[in-house]
Amino acid sequence: IAGITQAPTSQILAAGRRMTLRCTQDMRHNAMYWYRQDLGLGLRLIHYSNTAGTTGKGEVPDGYSVSRANTDDFPLTLASAVPSQTSVYFCASSLSAAYAGELFFGEGSRLTVL
Amino acid sequence: GENVEQHPSTLSVQEGDSAVIKCTYSDSASNYFPWYKQELGKRPQLIIDIRSNVGEKKDQRIAVTLNKTAKHFSLHITETQPEDSAVYFCAASADDKIIFGKGTRLHILP
To answer: What is the residue-averaged pLDDT of chain A?
Structure first.
């Protein structure tokens, strides 16, 4: 693994199903983020984590949950998917949240909820 | 919370001309302002950033200016080239969050 990796790359999901998007980084970055990207709406922050064991809500957290059990992994879970959650999801990491710096993005996960 | 407004949403410029994208932010505590470029089908990548203790920063053909009093910052691209065609996002950082504008699609016309 080099950098930040997301899985799956693409997924079609029936409404009401549970889905977890995986994100792993090997850069030992403290801060990690989940964004969703929708046409015309830019990148909207869903949840973030400053360090292992802590998480926070972003701009659009409803319907999503995250956990940060260790430094490397930051999974995003949709407990009961709805069509409005159809989007491209980007995971990102940075060295430190306290001293903001460059975000390194994963390749994105395209999720379609039918 | 922080709110970032970005204009214009679409910008077309002739190759060789300059392009300017403007952003405003709402939280006076924001202290870090990055710009990201996203090519079609790819992930966003940082092209330049500026911190609140600096008014201007330049890197070859791109520059960013910051006006803390007015709470706005701008991206300037000079001598535009075809490879500058992309979507550009501004962002502002406060309270451990990095909030993005809605993006500007830049078209470089031949």
So the answer is: 95
